[in-house]
Write a structure and sequence with these properties.
7-stranded mixed sheet; single chain; alpha/beta
Length: about 350
Protein backbone atom coordinates (compact mmCIF):
# COMPACT_ATOMS: atom_id res chain seq x y z
CA UNK A 1 0.00 0.00 0.00
CA UNK A 2 1.19 3.56 -0.69
CA UNK A 3 2.00 5.78 2.25
CA UNK A 4 -0.38 8.41 0.89
CA UNK A 5 -4.04 7.69 1.86
CA UNK A 6 -6.27 6.42 -0.94
CA UNK A 7 -8.62 9.30 -0.22
CA UNK A 8 -6.00 11.70 -1.53
CA UNK A 9 -4.77 9.50 -4.36
CA UNK A 10 -8.09 8.96 -6.12
CA UNK A 11 -10.92 11.28 -7.08
CA UNK A 12 -13.88 11.34 -4.72
CA UNK A 13 -16.15 10.24 -7.59
CA UNK A 14 -14.13 7.04 -8.00
CA UNK A 15 -13.95 6.32 -4.27
CA UNK A 16 -17.74 6.59 -3.96
CA UNK A 17 -18.44 4.22 -6.88
CA UNK A 18 -18.96 0.47 -6.96
CA UNK A 19 -17.22 -1.68 -9.57
CA UNK A 20 -19.37 -3.20 -12.30
CA UNK A 21 -20.15 -6.73 -11.12
CA UNK A 22 -20.44 -9.72 -13.44
CA UNK A 23 -22.08 -12.76 -11.89
CA UNK A 24 -20.31 -16.12 -11.94
CA UNK A 25 -22.34 -18.18 -14.42
CA UNK A 26 -20.46 -21.46 -14.03
CA UNK A 27 -22.84 -24.47 -14.05
CA UNK A 28 -25.90 -22.29 -14.65
CA UNK A 29 -28.27 -21.96 -17.58
CA UNK A 30 -26.94 -18.52 -18.49
CA UNK A 31 -29.74 -16.10 -19.32
CA UNK A 32 -28.39 -12.94 -17.70
CA UNK A 33 -26.15 -11.19 -20.24
CA UNK A 34 -28.06 -10.85 -23.56
CA UNK A 35 -25.74 -13.18 -25.45
CA UNK A 36 -26.54 -15.25 -28.52
CA UNK A 37 -26.62 -18.82 -27.11
CA UNK A 38 -25.80 -20.50 -30.41
CA UNK A 39 -22.32 -21.52 -31.56
CA UNK A 40 -21.10 -21.55 -35.17
CA UNK A 41 -21.82 -24.45 -37.57
CA UNK A 42 -18.86 -26.81 -37.82
CA UNK A 43 -18.14 -26.06 -41.48
CA UNK A 44 -18.12 -22.31 -40.78
CA UNK A 45 -15.82 -22.86 -37.81
CA UNK A 46 -13.38 -24.81 -39.97
CA UNK A 47 -13.26 -22.08 -42.61
CA UNK A 48 -12.86 -19.40 -39.94
CA UNK A 49 -9.92 -21.20 -38.32
CA UNK A 50 -8.30 -21.51 -41.74
CA UNK A 51 -8.66 -17.75 -42.25
CA UNK A 52 -6.88 -17.06 -38.95
CA UNK A 53 -3.69 -18.65 -40.27
CA UNK A 54 -3.04 -15.42 -42.17
CA UNK A 55 -3.18 -13.29 -39.04
CA UNK A 56 0.26 -11.74 -38.38
CA UNK A 57 0.11 -11.86 -34.60
CA UNK A 58 3.77 -10.79 -34.38
CA UNK A 59 2.79 -7.39 -35.83
CA UNK A 60 0.59 -4.61 -34.54
CA UNK A 61 -2.87 -4.65 -36.14
CA UNK A 62 -4.07 -2.13 -38.69
CA UNK A 63 -4.73 0.89 -36.45
CA UNK A 64 -7.68 1.97 -38.59
CA UNK A 65 -9.05 -1.54 -39.27
CA UNK A 66 -9.71 -0.40 -42.84
CA UNK A 67 -10.78 -3.76 -44.27
CA UNK A 68 -13.12 -4.38 -41.37
CA UNK A 69 -14.55 -0.87 -41.65
CA UNK A 70 -15.55 -1.56 -45.25
CA UNK A 71 -17.35 -4.75 -44.17
CA UNK A 72 -19.13 -2.93 -41.33
CA UNK A 73 -20.29 -0.19 -43.69
CA UNK A 74 -21.69 -2.73 -46.11
CA UNK A 75 -23.39 -4.88 -43.47
CA UNK A 76 -24.96 -1.92 -41.66
CA UNK A 77 -25.85 0.31 -44.63
CA UNK A 78 -23.77 3.18 -43.26
CA UNK A 79 -23.89 6.28 -45.51
CA UNK A 80 -20.71 6.92 -47.45
CA UNK A 81 -20.27 10.42 -46.02
CA UNK A 82 -20.41 9.18 -42.41
CA UNK A 83 -17.11 8.52 -40.63
CA UNK A 84 -16.50 5.46 -38.43
CA UNK A 85 -14.90 4.98 -35.03
CA UNK A 86 -14.21 1.42 -33.87
CA UNK A 87 -13.90 0.47 -30.23
CA UNK A 88 -13.12 -2.46 -27.97
CA UNK A 89 -16.83 -2.99 -27.46
CA UNK A 90 -19.36 -0.18 -27.13
CA UNK A 91 -18.04 0.40 -23.63
CA UNK A 92 -14.77 1.80 -24.98
CA UNK A 93 -16.63 4.06 -27.38
CA UNK A 94 -18.71 5.41 -24.49
CA UNK A 95 -15.48 6.06 -22.61
CA UNK A 96 -13.87 7.77 -25.64
CA UNK A 97 -16.90 10.02 -26.11
CA UNK A 98 -16.96 11.09 -22.48
CA UNK A 99 -13.20 11.53 -22.19
CA UNK A 100 -13.29 13.92 -25.15
CA UNK A 101 -15.77 16.30 -23.47
CA UNK A 102 -14.91 19.42 -21.51
CA UNK A 103 -14.13 18.76 -17.85
CA UNK A 104 -17.33 20.47 -16.65
CA UNK A 105 -19.61 19.02 -19.36
CA UNK A 106 -23.10 17.78 -18.58
CA UNK A 107 -24.22 14.34 -19.76
CA UNK A 108 -27.86 13.31 -19.93
CA UNK A 109 -29.64 9.98 -20.40
CA UNK A 110 -33.09 8.51 -19.75
CA UNK A 111 -33.28 6.18 -16.76
CA UNK A 112 -33.39 3.29 -16.32
CA UNK A 113 -30.89 2.87 -19.13
CA UNK A 114 -27.54 1.25 -19.86
CA UNK A 115 -25.58 1.57 -16.64
CA UNK A 116 -22.24 2.38 -18.32
CA UNK A 117 -23.42 5.83 -19.40
CA UNK A 118 -23.64 6.90 -15.78
CA UNK A 119 -20.74 4.75 -14.57
CA UNK A 120 -18.19 6.21 -16.99
CA UNK A 121 -19.50 9.78 -16.77
CA UNK A 122 -19.24 9.79 -12.99
CA UNK A 123 -15.81 8.15 -13.01
CA UNK A 124 -14.58 11.08 -15.12
CA UNK A 125 -16.14 13.66 -12.82
CA UNK A 126 -18.67 14.85 -15.40
CA UNK A 127 -22.06 16.24 -14.47
CA UNK A 128 -24.40 13.31 -15.12
CA UNK A 129 -28.17 13.73 -15.08
CA UNK A 130 -30.64 10.89 -15.42
CA UNK A 131 -34.20 11.66 -16.55
CA UNK A 132 -36.73 9.07 -15.34
CA UNK A 133 -38.87 7.33 -17.92
CA UNK A 134 -42.63 7.27 -17.55
CA UNK A 135 -43.72 4.71 -14.98
CA UNK A 136 -45.14 1.43 -16.31
CA UNK A 137 -44.81 2.29 -20.01
CA UNK A 138 -41.07 3.11 -19.82
CA UNK A 139 -41.56 5.71 -22.57
CA UNK A 140 -39.60 8.95 -22.73
CA UNK A 141 -41.03 11.65 -20.49
CA UNK A 142 -40.76 14.43 -23.04
CA UNK A 143 -41.73 17.36 -20.77
CA UNK A 144 -39.01 16.21 -18.35
CA UNK A 145 -36.52 15.70 -21.20
CA UNK A 146 -37.21 19.18 -22.58
CA UNK A 147 -36.74 20.72 -19.15
CA UNK A 148 -33.53 18.78 -18.48
CA UNK A 149 -32.04 19.78 -21.83
CA UNK A 150 -32.91 23.44 -21.23
CA UNK A 151 -31.52 23.42 -17.68
CA UNK A 152 -28.41 21.27 -18.09
CA UNK A 153 -27.42 22.18 -21.66
CA UNK A 154 -25.83 18.72 -22.05
CA UNK A 155 -22.80 18.28 -24.23
CA UNK A 156 -23.92 14.72 -24.86
CA UNK A 157 -27.18 12.77 -24.61
CA UNK A 158 -27.31 8.97 -24.70
CA UNK A 159 -30.48 7.24 -25.95
CA UNK A 160 -30.56 3.44 -26.16
CA UNK A 161 -32.77 2.23 -29.02
CA UNK A 162 -34.12 -0.31 -28.04
CA UNK A 163 -33.56 0.56 -24.41
CA UNK A 164 -31.70 -1.64 -21.96
CA UNK A 165 -33.01 -2.89 -19.54
CA UNK A 166 -36.63 -2.16 -20.50
CA UNK A 167 -36.46 -3.56 -24.05
CA UNK A 168 -38.78 -1.02 -25.65
CA UNK A 169 -38.23 1.23 -28.65
CA UNK A 170 -38.77 4.89 -27.80
CA UNK A 171 -40.98 6.95 -30.11
CA UNK A 172 -38.87 7.94 -33.12
CA UNK A 173 -40.54 11.36 -33.34
CA UNK A 174 -39.55 12.05 -29.73
CA UNK A 175 -35.91 11.20 -30.48
CA UNK A 176 -35.96 13.51 -33.50
CA UNK A 177 -37.29 16.29 -31.27
CA UNK A 178 -34.40 15.66 -28.84
CA UNK A 179 -31.98 15.86 -31.76
CA UNK A 180 -33.43 19.24 -32.69
CA UNK A 181 -33.36 20.55 -29.11
CA UNK A 182 -29.93 19.22 -28.09
CA UNK A 183 -27.16 21.82 -27.90
CA UNK A 184 -24.54 19.10 -28.23
CA UNK A 185 -24.22 15.51 -29.44
CA UNK A 186 -26.90 12.82 -29.33
CA UNK A 187 -25.75 9.20 -29.34
CA UNK A 188 -28.40 6.69 -30.39
CA UNK A 189 -27.17 3.36 -29.05
CA UNK A 190 -28.45 0.57 -31.29
CA UNK A 191 -26.79 -2.36 -29.54
CA UNK A 192 -29.89 -4.51 -30.10
CA UNK A 193 -30.48 -3.54 -33.73
CA UNK A 194 -30.45 -7.19 -34.96
CA UNK A 195 -33.65 -7.77 -32.97
CA UNK A 196 -35.48 -4.56 -33.87
CA UNK A 197 -36.99 -3.29 -37.08
CA UNK A 198 -35.91 0.29 -36.49
CA UNK A 199 -32.72 2.35 -36.84
CA UNK A 200 -31.46 5.92 -36.99
CA UNK A 201 -28.59 5.16 -39.36
CA UNK A 202 -30.67 6.54 -42.22
CA UNK A 203 -31.02 9.82 -40.31
CA UNK A 204 -27.28 10.53 -40.11
CA UNK A 205 -27.36 12.82 -43.14
CA UNK A 206 -30.23 14.85 -41.67
CA UNK A 207 -28.84 15.54 -38.18
CA UNK A 208 -25.19 16.66 -37.95
CA UNK A 209 -25.21 16.17 -34.15
CA UNK A 210 -26.39 12.54 -34.43
CA UNK A 211 -24.01 9.65 -33.71
CA UNK A 212 -25.22 6.06 -34.08
CA UNK A 213 -23.46 3.39 -32.03
CA UNK A 214 -23.69 -0.35 -32.59
CA UNK A 215 -21.97 -3.54 -31.47
CA UNK A 216 -21.53 -7.04 -32.87
CA UNK A 217 -21.96 -8.54 -29.39
CA UNK A 218 -25.69 -9.21 -29.56
CA UNK A 219 -25.39 -10.61 -33.08
CA UNK A 220 -23.39 -13.50 -31.64
CA UNK A 221 -19.84 -12.16 -31.41
CA UNK A 222 -19.73 -10.95 -27.81
CA UNK A 223 -16.33 -12.50 -27.13
CA UNK A 224 -14.67 -10.40 -29.83
CA UNK A 225 -15.47 -7.05 -28.15
CA UNK A 226 -16.17 -4.83 -31.12
CA UNK A 227 -18.34 -1.74 -31.21
CA UNK A 228 -18.52 1.07 -33.72
CA UNK A 229 -19.81 4.60 -34.02
CA UNK A 230 -20.96 6.38 -37.19
CA UNK A 231 -21.36 10.12 -37.56
CA UNK A 232 -20.14 13.42 -38.93
CA UNK A 233 -16.48 13.24 -39.95
CA UNK A 234 -15.52 16.44 -38.11
CA UNK A 235 -16.83 14.97 -34.84
CA UNK A 236 -15.33 11.53 -35.34
CA UNK A 237 -11.96 13.11 -36.18
CA UNK A 238 -11.80 14.59 -32.68
CA UNK A 239 -12.76 11.28 -31.09
CA UNK A 240 -9.93 9.50 -32.89
CA UNK A 241 -7.50 11.73 -30.98
CA UNK A 242 -8.68 10.08 -27.74
CA UNK A 243 -8.80 6.53 -29.08
CA UNK A 244 -5.78 4.47 -28.09
CA UNK A 245 -3.74 3.15 -31.02
CA UNK A 246 -4.21 -0.48 -32.10
CA UNK A 247 -7.36 -0.83 -30.00
CA UNK A 248 -8.87 -3.47 -32.31
CA UNK A 249 -6.64 -6.56 -32.34
CA UNK A 250 -5.94 -8.46 -35.54
CA UNK A 251 -7.86 -11.59 -34.45
CA UNK A 252 -10.99 -9.51 -33.92
CA UNK A 253 -10.51 -7.68 -37.21
CA UNK A 254 -10.20 -10.90 -39.20
CA UNK A 255 -12.92 -12.78 -37.34
CA UNK A 256 -15.58 -10.07 -37.50
CA UNK A 257 -14.81 -9.52 -41.17
CA UNK A 258 -15.15 -13.26 -41.80
CA UNK A 259 -18.42 -13.41 -39.84
CA UNK A 260 -19.93 -10.50 -41.79
CA UNK A 261 -18.93 -12.13 -45.09
CA UNK A 262 -20.55 -15.41 -44.01
CA UNK A 263 -23.32 -13.88 -41.95
CA UNK A 264 -26.32 -15.84 -43.20
CA UNK A 265 -26.15 -18.22 -40.23
CA UNK A 266 -26.04 -15.30 -37.79
CA UNK A 267 -29.17 -13.81 -39.35
CA UNK A 268 -30.87 -17.21 -39.11
CA UNK A 269 -29.95 -17.44 -35.43
CA UNK A 270 -31.30 -13.94 -34.87
CA UNK A 271 -34.62 -14.87 -36.50
CA UNK A 272 -34.81 -17.99 -34.33
CA UNK A 273 -34.27 -15.89 -31.21
CA UNK A 274 -36.92 -13.42 -32.30
CA UNK A 275 -39.36 -16.31 -32.61
CA UNK A 276 -38.39 -17.60 -29.18
CA UNK A 277 -38.80 -14.09 -27.76
CA UNK A 278 -42.43 -14.08 -28.86
CA UNK A 279 -43.03 -17.47 -27.23
CA UNK A 280 -41.39 -16.51 -23.92
CA UNK A 281 -43.25 -13.19 -23.83
CA UNK A 282 -46.55 -14.95 -24.44
CA UNK A 283 -45.82 -17.43 -21.64
CA UNK A 284 -44.95 -14.61 -19.24
CA UNK A 285 -48.05 -12.66 -20.22
CA UNK A 286 -50.12 -15.74 -19.36
CA UNK A 287 -48.52 -16.00 -15.93
CA UNK A 288 -50.91 -14.28 -13.48
CA UNK A 289 -48.32 -13.20 -10.90
CA UNK A 290 -45.95 -11.35 -13.23
CA UNK A 291 -46.20 -8.42 -15.61
CA UNK A 292 -44.08 -8.77 -18.75
CA UNK A 293 -43.10 -5.82 -20.92
CA UNK A 294 -42.93 -5.98 -24.74
CA UNK A 295 -39.38 -6.12 -26.09
CA UNK A 296 -37.61 -5.26 -29.34
CA UNK A 297 -34.35 -6.71 -27.99
CA UNK A 298 -33.14 -10.23 -27.14
CA UNK A 299 -34.32 -10.04 -23.54
CA UNK A 300 -37.58 -9.49 -21.69
CA UNK A 301 -38.16 -7.40 -18.59
CA UNK A 302 -40.82 -8.57 -16.19
CA UNK A 303 -42.10 -7.50 -12.80
CA UNK A 304 -43.14 -9.86 -10.01
CA UNK A 305 -46.49 -8.88 -8.51
CA UNK A 306 -47.10 -11.16 -5.52
CA UNK A 307 -43.57 -12.09 -4.48
CA UNK A 308 -40.35 -10.16 -4.01
CA UNK A 309 -38.09 -10.24 -7.06
CA UNK A 310 -35.11 -10.99 -4.80
CA UNK A 311 -36.81 -14.20 -3.66
CA UNK A 312 -37.79 -15.22 -7.17
CA UNK A 313 -34.25 -14.57 -8.38
CA UNK A 314 -32.80 -16.66 -5.55
CA UNK A 315 -35.19 -19.52 -6.28
CA UNK A 316 -34.34 -19.51 -9.98
CA UNK A 317 -30.66 -19.55 -9.14
CA UNK A 318 -31.11 -22.46 -6.76
CA UNK A 319 -32.74 -24.32 -9.66
CA UNK A 320 -29.74 -23.64 -11.90
CA UNK A 321 -31.12 -20.73 -13.92
CA UNK A 322 -29.28 -17.40 -13.87
CA UNK A 323 -31.10 -14.24 -14.96
CA UNK A 324 -30.56 -10.58 -14.02
CA UNK A 325 -32.04 -9.15 -10.83
CA UNK A 326 -32.69 -5.45 -11.42
CA UNK A 327 -34.73 -4.85 -8.29
CA UNK A 328 -31.74 -3.65 -6.22
CA UNK A 329 -31.52 -0.64 -8.53
CA UNK A 330 -34.85 0.51 -7.12
CA UNK A 331 -37.07 3.19 -8.58
CA UNK A 332 -38.93 2.09 -11.70
CA UNK A 333 -37.13 -1.28 -11.58
CA UNK A 334 -38.43 -2.30 -8.16
CA UNK A 335 -39.34 -6.01 -8.27
CA UNK A 336 -38.10 -6.28 -11.86
CA UNK A 337 -36.11 -9.13 -13.40
CA UNK A 338 -34.63 -9.43 -16.89
CA UNK A 339 -34.27 -12.69 -18.77
CA UNK A 340 -32.23 -13.19 -21.94
CA UNK A 341 -33.92 -15.17 -24.70
CA UNK A 342 -32.04 -18.44 -25.09
CA UNK A 343 -32.42 -21.74 -26.89
CA UNK A 344 -35.86 -23.39 -26.73
CA UNK A 345 -34.76 -25.85 -24.05
CA UNK A 346 -33.18 -23.06 -21.99
CA UNK A 347 -36.30 -20.93 -22.23
CA UNK A 348 -38.46 -23.85 -21.18
CA UNK A 349 -36.17 -24.56 -18.22
CA UNK A 350 -36.50 -20.91 -17.18
CA UNK A 351 -40.31 -20.92 -17.46
CA UNK A 352 -40.56 -24.18 -15.50
CA UNK A 353 -38.24 -22.85 -12.80
CA UNK A 354 -40.21 -19.59 -12.68
CA UNK A 355 -43.42 -21.49 -12.02
CA UNK A 356 -41.77 -23.10 -9.00
CA UNK A 357 -40.22 -19.79 -7.86
CA UNK A 358 -43.56 -17.98 -7.89
CA UNK A 359 -45.34 -20.51 -5.65
Amino acid sequence: MPTQPLETLFRSEVLSMSAYHVADACNFIKLDAMENPYSWPEDIQARWLESLKTCPINRYPDPEAKTLAVALRRANSIPEQAALLLGNGSDEIIQILLMALSADAAVLAPEPGFVMYKQVAQSLGLRYRGVPLLADSFELDMPAMRAAIAESRPALIFIAYPNNPTGNLFDAAAIKEILSLAPGLVVVDEAYAPFADASFIGELEHYPNLLVMRTVSKLGLAGLRLGFLAGDSAIVEQLHKVRLPYNINCLTQITVGFALDHGEFLLEQTQTLRGERALVLQALEETPSVRAYPSAANFILFRTLNKAADDVFASLKSQGVLIKNLSPQGGLLHNCLRVTVGKPEENQAFLSALTVALK
